[in-house]
Task: structure prediction
Amino acid sequence: MNTTRRETDPLGPLDVPADAYYGVQTQRAIINFPISGRLPDYALVAAAVNVKKAAARANRQTGRLPENIAAAIIQAADEILGLRESDLRQTLIANFRVDPFQAGAGVSHNMNTNEVLANRAIEILFAGGVGSGQRGDYSVVNPNDHVNMAQSTNDVFPTSMRVATLTKVRDFLPVLDELGETFDERGRAFDHVLKSGRTHMQDAVPIRLGQEFAAYALTVRRARARIADAADLLLEQNIGATAVGTGLNAEPEYITLVVQNLAEQTGFSLRTAEHLVHATQSMAPMLAVSAALRGLAVDLAKIAEDLLLMSSGPRTGFAEIKLPARQPGSSIMPGKVNPVMVENLSMICYHVIGLDTAVAWATSRGQLELNVMMPIIAHDVLESLTILTTGCRQFARECVAGIEADEARAAWLLEQSSAMATPLAPYIGYALAADIAKEAVKTGKTIRQLVIEKGVFTESEVNAILDPHELTEPGVAGGFKYEPKMPEGYKRPTGPVGGGG
Result:
C-alpha cells in the first residue's frame, strides 16, 4: 500500500502522505517551517473555513461556481465547523498543520485551508458519483480555482484573523464580567474593614478594604469596555479586496454577498470595509485590540502586586488579607503556602505585554499594499486572548472569590500608622501634627496615645475625630466640633489648614 501520493505545484512535484487531506503546498510549509511545533489556533482555522464557506455560497449565488462543487465545499466546511455530523471532524481539523511561524501574509495557512476543503469535497462528490474519489485529484475540485475562487490570501487571511479575534473576544468578555463582579462581591463583604492606606509604600491615611476592591472591580470593567470598543473595529472586512485591495477577479455582487454570508454564518455584524485598499494595508484594528489587552494586563499586574503585598506573611508581612491556599509552596520549608494564583496571573500579564510589543512591531512593518507579518499578529493576539480568558477565569474563581480579610490585623496596623496624625491637622496644623507623627515613630506609641498624653484632646474627643468611618469619607473628621489645647510653643492655626500628599 502506498504511504504517499505525488502532487505537483508551480515549483514541481512533491510527495504528500497518502492519507493527508492537505496537499503539496501545505507539505512544503511543513518542511520549511518546523519552528515552534505548534498548530494553528482553532479559532483561526474555523474563521478561515467560514470564509471559504461564505465565498463558495457567494460564488454559487453569482453563478460562477457550479452547484455541485459549491455544495461539496460547503458540506466539507460544515463538517470541520461541527455544523454537520461527521466522524471525520477531528481528523480534518488535525490536517491544519502549518506552524504559526510561517511565511509572510498567511499564504501557507490559506492554502492549507483550500487543500483540506478541496480533498474532502472530492470525496463527497465521489459519493455522489463524480470523479475518482482520490485525494489530490484536483481535476474534480481544485484548491485554487474552486475553493479560492474570487479570493486572495491577502483578503482571506485578514478577514480570518479579524473573525477569529472577534470570536475570542466574545468568549472573553463574560469572563471579565465575572472577574469584575467577583471583586465587587468581595468589596461589599469588606466594606466595613478599616486598614491603613499606603502611598510610596509608606503609611497613609485610612481606607476601607472594600473601597480598594471596589476600585479593582471598576478597573476591570473599564478595561473590558476598552476591549469591546477595540473589537468593534474588527467588524470591517476586506474580503473581496483580493490581492491589493482593488478587487480584481471578484465581481461587485460577490463582494457584497460574501460579507453578508459571513455575517450570517458567524453572528457578527460584519460589513465591507470603507476602503478596501486601506483595510488590506492596515493592521490597525488588530493593534487596537492588542493594545487594549495590554492595558488590561498592566491593570491586572498592578492588582496582583497589591494582593501580594496585602497578603504577605503570614507572620512577618502585612497579612491584612488571606488568599485561598491552593497548593504547598515549598519543597524544603514545611507548611509554606505561596500565592500561586496571583503569581500565575502576573506571568500571564507579562507575557501578554510582550506579545503586544511583537504585534506593534509587526503592524509597523507592512510594506506598501500588504502587511506580510499577519501570521504573527494573528497568533499573538489570539494567544493573548486565550491565556487571559483562562487565566482571568481561574483567578476569579480560585483566588478572588475566596479572599478573606484579617480584620484584627488590619485594625492593629492602622492604629500603629503615623498617618493617623493627618485627621488632626485641620485642628492643630500641619507642623504639630508632623511632630506628633515623628514622635510616634520614634517611641512606638500610637497617635491616639500621644494626643491624649499631651492633653491636646480628651480621649472622647480624639476618639470622635479618629472615628473609623469618618476617616474614609470626604470631609473633616469630627466636623470642627472640638477645640484643641495647644502645647506650649504652638499656636493654633486660623483659616483652612491641613493638606499635603
